[in-house]
Amino acid sequence: MGTPDQPAVEAIELTAVMHALSDDARLAVVRELACGGERPCGSFDLGVSKATASHHFRVLREAGITATRVDGKRRLLSLRRDDLDARFPGLLTAVLHATASEPGAATPAPDAPVAA
């Protein structure tokens, strides 16, 4: 099992990022990663089938929002915050803060940048 393809920083497209963040399940994954760091794919409780969860993880990875690292039989997801901030400064922080009051929203990590 090799490392899944993910776009280079300069290849991350705003339309792909916005599309990926437009789904509640994918947004929940991003919020949880922002709060807790790298996690195994199987640790997310999205309330969907494994196939649907895999689809959401793929959309996030292909948009450049997450990175997937293979560790034995596990796939670990992490947020590409630095890459997203380099490409679209403040976008991820704005989205996380704008959606923080939504039901089920996780609270961003204390070291997460706060929009001014």
Q: Please give the count of helices.
A: 5
Distance between the termini: 42 Å
Query: Main β-sheet: number of strands, strand sense, barrel status?
Result: 3 strands, antiparallel
Structural class: alpha+beta
Strand order of the largest sheet: 1-3-2
The helix content, as a percent range, equals 40-55%
CATH-derived architecture? Orthogonal Bundle
Mean pLDDT: 88
Look up the CATH topology.
Answer: Arc Repressor Mutant, subunit A
Radius of gyration: 13 Å
- Give start-end ranges of low-pLDDT stretches: 107-111
* Count of distinct strands: 3
CATH class label: Mainly Alpha
Description of the molecule:
- 42% of the residues lie in helices and 12% in strands.
- The protein is α+β, with helices and mostly antiparallel strands and 116 residues long.
- It has one domain (11-98): Arc Repressor Mutant, subunit A.
- It has a three-stranded antiparallel β-sheet.
- A hairpin with a 2-residue loop joins strand 2 and strand 3.
- Helix 1 (14-20) packs antiparallel against helix 3 (50-63).
- The longest helix has 14 residues, at 50-63.
- It is globular and about 35 Å long.
